[in-house]
Write a structure and sequence with these properties.
Blueprint: H1 4-34, H2 37-63, H3 83-110, H4 114-144, H5 148-158
Helix pairs in contact: 1-2, 1-3, 2-5, 3-4
The structure holds fe (ii) ion (2 copies).
Protein backbone atom coordinates (compact mmCIF):
# COMPACT_ATOMS: atom_id res chain seq x y z
CA UNK A 1 0.00 0.00 0.00
CA UNK A 2 1.17 3.48 -0.87
CA UNK A 3 2.07 5.73 2.07
CA UNK A 4 -0.03 8.88 2.36
CA UNK A 5 3.03 11.16 2.03
CA UNK A 6 4.18 9.52 -1.20
CA UNK A 7 0.66 9.33 -2.62
CA UNK A 8 0.24 13.05 -2.11
CA UNK A 9 3.63 13.78 -3.72
CA UNK A 10 2.75 11.58 -6.73
CA UNK A 11 -0.64 13.31 -7.12
CA UNK A 12 1.17 16.67 -7.01
CA UNK A 13 3.65 15.56 -9.67
CA UNK A 14 0.79 14.33 -11.91
CA UNK A 15 -0.61 17.85 -11.54
CA UNK A 16 2.76 19.42 -12.43
CA UNK A 17 2.91 17.25 -15.57
CA UNK A 18 -0.58 18.43 -16.52
CA UNK A 19 0.58 22.00 -15.88
CA UNK A 20 3.59 21.34 -18.15
CA UNK A 21 1.18 20.16 -20.86
CA UNK A 22 -0.92 23.30 -20.31
CA UNK A 23 2.17 25.55 -20.40
CA UNK A 24 3.36 24.08 -23.70
CA UNK A 25 -0.12 24.30 -25.21
CA UNK A 26 -0.13 27.97 -24.22
CA UNK A 27 3.26 28.35 -25.91
CA UNK A 28 1.78 26.64 -29.00
CA UNK A 29 -1.05 29.20 -28.96
CA UNK A 30 1.50 32.01 -28.71
CA UNK A 31 3.49 30.66 -31.69
CA UNK A 32 0.28 30.22 -33.71
CA UNK A 33 -0.51 33.88 -33.04
CA UNK A 34 2.93 34.99 -34.27
CA UNK A 35 2.78 32.88 -37.44
CA UNK A 36 5.59 30.51 -36.41
CA UNK A 37 3.62 27.36 -37.30
CA UNK A 38 6.65 25.05 -37.04
CA UNK A 39 7.37 26.19 -33.46
CA UNK A 40 3.66 25.79 -32.70
CA UNK A 41 3.80 22.23 -34.03
CA UNK A 42 6.81 21.43 -31.84
CA UNK A 43 4.93 22.71 -28.77
CA UNK A 44 1.79 20.76 -29.73
CA UNK A 45 3.91 17.58 -29.73
CA UNK A 46 5.47 18.57 -26.40
CA UNK A 47 1.97 19.09 -24.97
CA UNK A 48 1.15 15.47 -25.85
CA UNK A 49 4.46 14.23 -24.40
CA UNK A 50 3.56 15.87 -21.09
CA UNK A 51 0.11 14.25 -21.12
CA UNK A 52 1.89 10.90 -21.38
CA UNK A 53 3.95 11.83 -18.31
CA UNK A 54 0.79 12.72 -16.40
CA UNK A 55 -0.86 9.43 -17.45
CA UNK A 56 2.16 7.48 -16.23
CA UNK A 57 1.61 8.92 -12.74
CA UNK A 58 -2.16 8.34 -13.03
CA UNK A 59 -1.63 4.68 -13.95
CA UNK A 60 1.07 4.12 -11.35
CA UNK A 61 -1.14 5.48 -8.55
CA UNK A 62 -3.99 3.21 -9.71
CA UNK A 63 -1.63 0.22 -9.92
CA UNK A 64 -0.77 0.79 -6.28
CA UNK A 65 -4.49 0.30 -5.59
CA UNK A 66 -5.34 3.85 -4.59
CA UNK A 67 -7.44 6.58 -6.14
CA UNK A 68 -5.67 9.25 -8.16
CA UNK A 69 -6.66 12.77 -7.12
CA UNK A 70 -7.03 15.48 -9.75
CA UNK A 71 -6.02 18.89 -8.42
CA UNK A 72 -6.76 22.26 -10.09
CA UNK A 73 -4.36 23.12 -12.92
CA UNK A 74 -2.65 26.51 -12.59
CA UNK A 75 -3.19 29.03 -15.39
CA UNK A 76 -0.04 29.25 -17.51
CA UNK A 77 1.39 32.52 -18.88
CA UNK A 78 0.07 33.45 -22.34
CA UNK A 79 2.52 36.07 -23.63
CA UNK A 80 6.24 36.06 -24.26
CA UNK A 81 8.60 38.57 -25.86
CA UNK A 82 10.07 36.27 -28.51
CA UNK A 83 10.79 32.64 -29.41
CA UNK A 84 14.00 32.99 -27.42
CA UNK A 85 12.03 34.17 -24.38
CA UNK A 86 9.67 31.18 -24.74
CA UNK A 87 12.51 28.67 -24.81
CA UNK A 88 14.38 30.34 -21.95
CA UNK A 89 11.27 29.96 -19.82
CA UNK A 90 10.55 26.42 -21.04
CA UNK A 91 14.13 25.37 -20.28
CA UNK A 92 13.89 26.87 -16.78
CA UNK A 93 10.59 25.04 -16.32
CA UNK A 94 12.16 21.70 -17.25
CA UNK A 95 15.00 22.31 -14.78
CA UNK A 96 12.35 22.90 -12.08
CA UNK A 97 10.62 19.63 -13.04
CA UNK A 98 13.95 17.78 -12.77
CA UNK A 99 14.36 19.15 -9.24
CA UNK A 100 10.81 18.01 -8.37
CA UNK A 101 11.50 14.49 -9.70
CA UNK A 102 14.73 14.35 -7.69
CA UNK A 103 12.82 15.41 -4.55
CA UNK A 104 10.30 12.64 -5.23
CA UNK A 105 13.10 10.06 -5.56
CA UNK A 106 14.63 11.31 -2.29
CA UNK A 107 11.26 11.05 -0.53
CA UNK A 108 10.70 7.51 -1.88
CA UNK A 109 14.20 6.50 -0.73
CA UNK A 110 13.68 7.94 2.73
CA UNK A 111 10.36 6.08 3.00
CA UNK A 112 11.99 2.86 1.65
CA UNK A 113 9.43 2.69 -1.16
CA UNK A 114 11.51 0.74 -3.70
CA UNK A 115 8.65 0.40 -6.15
CA UNK A 116 8.24 4.19 -6.33
CA UNK A 117 12.03 4.64 -6.65
CA UNK A 118 12.00 2.17 -9.53
CA UNK A 119 8.99 3.82 -11.22
CA UNK A 120 10.64 7.24 -10.97
CA UNK A 121 13.84 6.11 -12.75
CA UNK A 122 12.05 6.50 -16.09
CA UNK A 123 11.44 10.18 -15.23
CA UNK A 124 15.03 10.67 -14.05
CA UNK A 125 16.23 9.57 -17.51
CA UNK A 126 13.46 11.42 -19.33
CA UNK A 127 14.41 14.71 -17.67
CA UNK A 128 17.96 14.41 -19.04
CA UNK A 129 16.44 14.20 -22.55
CA UNK A 130 13.93 16.97 -21.86
CA UNK A 131 16.56 19.42 -20.62
CA UNK A 132 18.83 18.60 -23.54
CA UNK A 133 16.15 19.02 -26.22
CA UNK A 134 15.09 22.42 -24.81
CA UNK A 135 18.66 23.66 -24.41
CA UNK A 136 19.54 22.52 -27.98
CA UNK A 137 16.76 24.68 -29.39
CA UNK A 138 17.72 27.57 -27.12
CA UNK A 139 21.31 27.32 -28.42
CA UNK A 140 20.06 27.42 -32.02
CA UNK A 141 17.90 30.45 -31.23
CA UNK A 142 20.91 32.20 -29.69
CA UNK A 143 22.96 31.38 -32.78
CA UNK A 144 20.45 32.77 -35.25
CA UNK A 145 19.77 35.81 -33.04
CA UNK A 146 17.75 38.32 -35.11
CA UNK A 147 18.25 36.62 -38.48
CA UNK A 148 14.89 36.34 -40.29
CA UNK A 149 16.31 33.66 -42.57
CA UNK A 150 17.58 31.68 -39.58
CA UNK A 151 14.23 31.76 -37.82
CA UNK A 152 12.45 30.73 -41.05
CA UNK A 153 14.81 27.73 -41.38
CA UNK A 154 14.43 26.75 -37.73
CA UNK A 155 10.65 27.06 -37.98
CA UNK A 156 10.74 24.63 -40.90
CA UNK A 157 12.86 22.20 -38.87
CA UNK A 158 10.45 22.45 -35.91
CA UNK A 159 7.52 21.62 -38.20
CA UNK A 160 9.02 18.14 -38.76
CA UNK A 161 8.48 16.94 -35.18
CA UNK A 162 5.90 14.18 -34.98
CA UNK A 163 4.18 12.74 -31.92
CA UNK A 164 4.77 9.00 -31.83
CA UNK A 165 3.47 8.00 -28.39
CA UNK A 166 0.10 6.89 -27.05
CA UNK A 167 -1.54 9.03 -24.41
CA UNK A 168 -4.38 6.77 -23.40
CA UNK A 169 -3.45 3.46 -21.88
CA UNK A 170 -5.69 0.42 -21.96
CA UNK A 171 -4.64 -1.05 -18.65
CA UNK A 172 -8.03 -0.59 -17.03
CA UNK A 173 -9.71 -2.78 -19.68
CA UNK A 174 -11.43 -5.76 -17.99
CA UNK A 175 -9.27 -8.89 -18.01
CA UNK A 176 -10.57 -12.06 -19.73
CA UNK A 177 -11.71 -14.61 -17.14
CA UNK A 178 -8.84 -17.00 -16.29
CA UNK A 179 -10.87 -20.21 -16.32
CA UNK A 180 -13.16 -19.55 -19.26
CA UNK A 181 -14.47 -22.79 -20.83
FE1 LIG B 1 7.09 15.94 -17.99
FE1 LIG C 1 8.89 17.96 -19.80
Amino acid sequence: MLKEKILSALNNQMNRELYSAYLYLSMAAYFESTGLKGFANWMRVQFQEELIHAMKFFDYIINRAVKAELLPIEKPPAEWKSANDVFQNAYKHEQKVTALINDLVNLSLSESDHSAVNFLQWFVNEQVEEESSFSDILNKLNLISDSKEGSFMLDREMSQRVFTGTIFTTQTKPQAPQNAQ
